[in-house]
Each structure stands twice: as structure tokens, then as C-alpha cells.
Write a structure and sequence with these properties.
Helices cover about 30% and strands about 30% of the residues. The chain contains seven helices and eleven strands. The chain has helices at about 10, 35-40, 45-65, 125-130, 130-140, 145-170, 230-239, and strands at about 5, 20-25, 75, 80, 85-95, 95-105, 110-115, 175-180, 190-195, 210-215, 220-225. The strands form three sheets. It has a five-stranded antiparallel β-sheet.
């Protein structure tokens, strides 16, 4: 059966050259899961199975651009996707939408991708997600903009968490970083991610870290990438 996921140039703009993104704007078909993938959702509820399938289909579509076909994206003990040894990647899925991004390990050390439905973050959760400076920024916006702003902050922190965890395996709280969004009011823009305490990633990448976001339909998607060994060597030789 044909994989219904399609490449996405728009999502690709959230990441450096060389990364490939794919998306699926419908629930995933569980029948398209490979046996080594389906085993992880045997006892899951149908909604979870469809979301899991959507993410895997997107990941396999993106990997196909690198000549990697029918590679099962299994689940590690820490619940992270298991990528081919030469690749890094990230998967996201939410209501009616799935996406994935992959890149070669030499050019990109880690990727983080997260998509959320704008406004789905309940107001009572905002204090658990936002640090005081983020709360002050949100409250400075018109009331109609605030749900989208908090959803962006949430999505950006999720993307950052996935990216750093792939490298250093540190579990973080929402208050361990703060987010600054550039070009608020535009459909897309840059992100600055600043740790609020010393975290493990600081030993590998100097803060503030950079990301990007994009609003599309009812969603907001955030992406982040950290340079791989080849890019780091180029940067060092240029200094």
C-alpha cells in the first residue's frame, strides 16, 4: 500500500539545509504500520494507534529521501524513536495531524519537532508551563492572542526537550527554559531558548539556542536543530 504522507517544504524551513520533513493531514492507517512498529501499540486505544501510525508514516516517508526504505521506527526503553544509525530525527502527532523530520547524523546532531492545536493548552496549566517573563509577555498581548502565545511556548519547549534529550538524556521541567518569540503576529518566526539554570546541554551548545516556529491552519509547529560533527568542525576551522 502507498504511504500517504507527503514531503513538506514548509516544515523544512524550520530546520537547517539537509533536513527533510514530511507530514500527514489525516489520521494514520494502522494497517500501514510495519510489524516491528505495530507491536508497540497492540494494547493502545484506537486514537493512540492512529496517531502513532501517522508519525511513523511521516518518518518513513522522510527517510525514503535518503534511500532508507521500509525501516521500522521502533521504540527505545526511554520511549524515544529508534532511528537508523546514520540518521537523527523527531516525530510529532496531534489531532488529525502528524509530522516528522530527519537528517544525516554528520550534519545534524539532534532534531526536535512538536506540533500543537492552538488554544488546546488549558488556562489553568499556563502557570506550570510559563516562567514569569513568559507570563508577563503573554499578559501584554490582547486577550485573543494569549492562547496562541501560550501554545507556541508549550510547543517550543516540547521541541527543545526532544532535541536536547536525544543528546544528553536529561529530563527537564517546563520552568528550566524560557522562550522568546520573534516577529509575533507573523505566521512564522524565530525562537530564542534560554535555560533558566545550568542544564547538561550547555556543555555542548552555548545558550541562547535558536529555533523556529510556524502557524498553519489550526496548528502551531516548533522546530529545533543542533549542529552535527561535520558542521561543528567547519565552524571551529572558521574561528
Amino acid at each position: 500500500m502507498i504511504n500517504p504522507a507527503s514531503l513538506s517544504n514548509d516544515l523544512g524551513t524550520l530546520f537547517p539545509p539537509g533536513a527533510v520533513a514530511a507530514e500527514l493531514r489525516e489520521p494514520g492507517d494502522p494497517q500501514l504500520l510495519l510489524p516491528a512498529e505495530a507491536m508497540y501499540v497492540v494494547r493502545a486505544v484506537p486514537k493512540r494507534v492512529r496517531e502513532f501510525a501517522a508519525g511513523r508514516l511521516c518518518a518513513r516517508r522522510a527517510l525514503a529521501e535518503f534511500g532508507i526504505v521500509d525501516f521500522p521506527i521502533q521504540v527505545a526503553d526511554d520511549r524515544q524513536p529508534v532511528w537508523p544509525g546514520s540518521m537523527v530525527g523527531s516525530i510529532t502527532h496531534t489531532a488529525g495531524y502528524g509530522a516528522a523530520v530527519v537528517a544525516g547524523r554528520l550534519s545534524v546532531a539532534a532534531l526536535g519537532l512538536d506540533c500543537e492545536v492552538v488554544g488546546d493548552v488549558k488556562a489553568e496549566l499556563w502557570p506550570r508551563i510559563c516562567v514569569p517573563t513568559e507570563t508577563a509577555w503573554v499578559e501584554s498581548l490582547p486577550a485573543s492572542d494569549q492562547p496562541a502565545a501560550v501554545t507556541l511556548i508549550f510547543s517550543a519547549k516540547e521541541a527543545f526537550y526532544k532535541c536536547q534529550f536525544a543528546l544528553v538524556r536529561e529530563r527537564l521541567d517546563f520552568h528550566d527554559v524560557r522562550i522568546e518569540a520573534a516577529a509575533w503576529g507573523a505566521s512564522s518566526g524565530g525562537l530564542r531558548i534560554q535555560p533558566t539554570r545550568r542544564i547538561a546541554l550547555c556543555a555542548r551548545a552555548a545558550p541562547p539556542l535558536q529555533g523556529r516556529y510556524r502557524f498553519h491552519q489550526e496548528f502551531v509547529t516548533a522546530g529545533m536543530a543542533l549542529a552535527g560533527a561535520a558542521d561543528s568542525a567547519v565552524e571551529e576551522s572558521a574561528q
